[in-house]
Amino acid sequence: MRLPLRRLRALREATQVRSTSGDEGPSKEEDIRLLTPRVPEGFVEIERYWIEEPYSMVQILLNERTKVKKYCLLEPPMSPFEYTLLERLFNDLQELVGKEEVGESIEEREEFLERKVRDLLRWYGLDVDERGMLKLLYYLKRNFLREGKITALLKDDYIEDISCTAPNSPIFLYHRVHHSIETNISFEEEELDAFVMRLCQRSGRHISYAKPLVDATMPDGSRLQATLGRVVTSRGSSFTIRRFREEPITPVHLMKYGTVSPDILVYLWLAIENKKSLIFLGGTATGKTSILNAVSLFIPPTAKIVSIEDTREVRLHHPNWIASVTKEGIKGEGTVTMFDLLKAALRQRPEYILVGEVRGVEAITLFQAMSTGHATYSTMHADSVQSAINRLESDPINLPHIMLDALHGFCIQQIVYKGDERLRRTKVLVELTGIDPHMGRIRINEVFRWNPYDDSFEMSSPEMYRIIMRERGWSEGELKRELSDRKALLTALLERDVRDYRVLSEVFHRYYLDKERVMSTYVEHEEHEE
Hints:
By secondary structure, the chain is an alpha/beta fold. It is 39% helix and 22% strand.
């Protein structure tokens, strides 16, 4: 319900009278200061940083009594007049946006919004000072063009996950430094229902009380899981957002974080180059897709790649790549499943197939592709080799035991703790070396294992190296030289902190085409300087 303009003007006059009574008023510098951080009683400020200066700031506070941290998002406070004016502008702009051509780019939309706000203020007969105009435009752009209350959270590079479990409950985050932490943000029930519907619509998916569960990819690439109402979540609507990194994880990131050693990456590089199929295992948020995406940079530049996912997560800098995503149909029509995409991929004659996650009947087709010479790489929820094999051989996959012989190995990811710090590590990398003809058991060779006592990786003798020597006609000296060169290159890239996935992709591609030049640029020159 709109407040009549005469009452809006009266509220403005009352606000002006209150602000001019007393002292001389704020200086020009203070006029444009939108935020004044304060530490509540009983709390200590641990950290403070801007998300978008001067509009949004984060305070990390510690409750002195409970010793629990809190993530406090600060945004510009609104006076009663500004809040009422904001509501009136929001309602009037909704009508204008529906009637006029807004533009496609975010810049065009922001320009349209700002122009219409100034037009409406002139029509209202109201003057708004510079600070008030900045606040109005911030909230209108936030609520119209972005993600409302959680816009600033989606801009915070420290945040991995955003989780709202129910109405009137605080949103929780996973912060790269402060880990799982409660925020000062929450939604009322009707507000949360409307927000969840809007999130899904902006992600190109429909959610309703008839279909209250949705998985989707948001416009920025983040992964959304949402529920509506109390049908499947008894406390009310909920959503979880797994943040999309603007810059994908690369092999250098993995070494820098200690997730893998250079020796593991050299092994994976040779495995991928020589088309040895692998599945990356682990629990939720252990980094399965991240390591799959990172090592995909080792795929040769001329090879054709097809990636198949439910929600888009794989990002490559490769000239010959088809990125396919499943599609949800309407009333059963037009649905495109992982199985459909995988069948189509085999007709596209790819050399490499990347599957976001194996969980259904598409696994049989994936293993058939392995058997016919396609290199395939995928992820699966499992915490050990045996649990992965059990999943593959049980419902709903029911993979014939003999087909496991086409798979080269498993790489198992795990979340570990070092003090209070949560880390991701490659727990173990194993080769499947065949099926025992008498017992029918899978024979395995453990190549790498993480040692928790000193946070190192122990290596045994890889069977794959012997296979590659036979297939490529290498001598033992040639193999050792190749292993040494690749390790030296990866170590040099780590020392130079080369983490941009586009740059690294070019380096690995050039390595296949002009190895001597790459080594002289990154390795020999580095050694000469030392």
